[in-house]
Amino acid sequence: MNTDPKVNVLLVDNEPANLIALEATLEYLGQNLVKAYSGTEALRYVLDQDFAVILLDVQMPGLNGIETAALIRERERSRHIPIIFLTGAVKTAEMMFKGYSAGAVDYLMKPIVSEVLRAKVEVFVELAQARQKLQEEIVERARVATEIDERSTWTRWSGKRCRKRSRTCQAATSSGTSSRCPKFKATATCCARCG
Known about the structure:
single chain, alpha/beta, Rossmann fold, 6 helices, 5 strands, 55% helix, elongated
């Protein structure tokens, strides 16, 4: 049984059939597959959610894949999301340069080989899960460090109070005036034990 947290994978293509094919290929990974039918819709998702990887069609009407990727890279929160471009057009050096400049980590040609796509996406999913676990570990360590610091501060404070209490009690009993601590209303033996 896989106990790793699920991560989001964004699938962006204006053709519903392509999104269905991507979903069928990647459902094996057991992650949250989020579908967007345009670059604009993809940008809306990126505003609200974190993604392990984005699979982005290059040629879409309106906001194309390269423009969408450039806008995704402009935001600090989404700047480091890996983007894999999917294209049915012949890859030219110019198109690849534009894609990599916009933030692509890879290009895949349609029709996509399912095993290759699955293997590439799986790597980014595993990296996102490891990053998520690391962030949780950092938060937990910070919580424990704060708790230790608070306990240490309390121990130092209470230790000073007990030593002060002990000196007051000892002074009171040494003078023979009382066996009770005048300041803390405790017996001298109790306070001496604390000190």
